[in-house]
Write a structure and sequence with these properties.
This protein is of the alpha+beta class. Helix content is 55%, strand content 17%. The protein is built from seven helices and eleven strands. A four-stranded antiparallel sheet has the order 3-2-5-6, with no helix packed on it. It has a three-stranded mixed sheet with strand order 4-1-7, with no helix packed on it. A two-stranded antiparallel ribbon has the order 8-9.
Amino acid sequence: MRGIVIVVMLSASVAHADDKATADRLFDEGRAAMAANDYASACPKLEESQRLDPALGTLLNIGLCYEGQGRLASALAVWREAEDQARGAGETKRATTAAEHIAALEPRVPTITVQVTSPSPGMQVTIGGKPVASSAWGQPAPADPGDVAITATAPDAEPFATTISVKERDRAVVVVPALAVIEKGGMPPAEMHPRRNIALLVGGGGLVVTAIGVVLAVGAKSDYNKAFDDGHCDRATLSCDDVGQAATDKARGRGTTATIVGALGLAAVAAGVVVYVTAPERSTAIVPTIDQTSAGVSLVGSF
């Protein structure tokens, strides 16, 4: 048993040594990237170094890196954490350095104040993807400069979402309106997507063209039969005189036209259905349908 314990302790020591070596390498690489003003590469390296082997010196460098990236609110939070750690460790010089950065950053950091006009039960608010406690609603929240998303959600209510752009020293205010209540039994009807409007037009037009093809086919069949009924053609021999031959040829031509028109109409209806079904934000709607024996409309969508 003692042997097993010793092996486990040695393995843990080796793993820790490997982590420290990797952390030291990443720290050096991060510092070199910062010296070259390559903050996009430097900050992730310093963050990973801190994760593998937390150290106050690494934390201070992360604060510098965030400042160089323009992530002022993130830098402020790091400097505050570094000051607390430095004072706790009795490192006065580092605590003073952190305090100086905090004093310089505080007036520069933009803030966003979210004002909730009518809180809904269970409402949750986020700024830049981070939850904001209800006790902090109406209070300025530090934010990094750039585009920031603000959301408000609640059970059985339509969500609120907006994105604002903030610059250094901005003091933005976002007002969250009362969230519309979703009626029990279903979601509110979604707005018709433009592709669905096109689908309905194409499908409806195809239905009309198909109907024209049916009318042409019925007329052609009637003209063909009339040549036999009038005695110009013989049903037994399928022979016709000149008048009957002209009438049946004309009927056949109209029949061919009817077939082409009907096929085009069916293709348009099929295309309309495909476009409608594949359009985003599916909602319930009436669309044209057709089969070999009938044409009409159907209710399709999400139920």
